[in-house]
Amino acid sequence: MTIRHSLRFAITAVFLFSGCSPQRPKTTIIVYHAAVFEPVVRDLYPSAARELSLTIRAETGSSGHLIRRHVELGRRCDLLLSADPSFFRSLGQGRFPWYLVWLADEMVLAVGVRAPHPDWAERDWVAALRAPGIRLGRSDEQISPAGLYTLRIWERMERRGYTGLSAELRQKTSLVADDISTLAARLKTGDLDYAFLFRSAAYMHEIRFIALDPDLNFSKETSDGYPSIRFAASIPTDAAQPQAAEALLRWLIRPERQEWNDRGFRSLPLLFFGSRADYARFADMAAYGGEP
């Protein structure tokens, strides 16, 4: 039976620091970041707050929920880091007209600490997942990019000849979570056996994982029209502190920052998508990628 968790927006932290000059007032900004970024930004925000003289109030959750929180619930953010750039357009209702892409990732099959048949899964993960009693988890494809890519992996395997695989694995799914952090926690406690995650999530949560074929892991554009995995950031048009948000965005994604690569992500040359007018202020740091 599928369990659907209620909306979960964990308040990550409120960073208050006294290292800046008392003559320089601090600006408070609200940052929403997808769960996949959590371990990295948790370490980066304190330094950013000190250097930029900011108070950073951060919340984490699935990309879809975060955008809907801003747009539909009226709980505004100043900066949003998403695990799927397409959500800015599909869910943003025009309030996120541009975005900057700076990271890439790939999908892997994560293995729980009590998972049966891990060595078998290394050789033939389809057969291992079809074995009786397997507890499979996935994130909600409506709000979580990793959940959407999970379903695409199953569909692609069906086209390889594994007839009925998608329906079978949906039936075997014992947990549909709001975001990948929940899946990672259940894998580590042994409450789940397998789940498809971003490689960075498995890496940062120290979870064993099985690499997928390059034509399955979405590390690059595909011949059947599916996009590769790219992560992006945007400042909404109704941000209360757009200048402070831009300063923090530049600080987080500057090319020399190695923390992302050290935690399993793959840095990309900065690429801006949006109007030429919006691009003008980022032309010093990013190439132009066109309209979203």
Tertiary shape: globular
Q: How is the main sheet built?
A: 8 strands, mixed
Average predicted local confidence, pLDDT: 91
Instruction: Count the domains.
Output: 2
In the CATH classification, which architecture of the largest domain applies? Answer: 3-Layer(aba) Sandwich
CATH class of the largest domain: Alpha Beta
Which strand-content bin applies to the residues? 15-25%
The helix content, as a percent range, equals: 25-40%
Number of helices: 12
Strand elements, count: 13
Tell me the name of the CATH homologous superfamily of the largest domain: Periplasmic binding protein-like II
H/E element order: EEHEHEHEEHHEHHEHEHEEHHEHE
Low-confidence sequence ranges: 1-22
CATH-defined topology of the largest domain:
D-Maltodextrin-Binding Protein, domain 2
Distance between the termini: 38 Å
Please give the order of strands in the largest beta sheet: 1-3-2-4-11-5-12-13
Radius of gyration: 19 Å
- Helix-strand category: alpha/beta
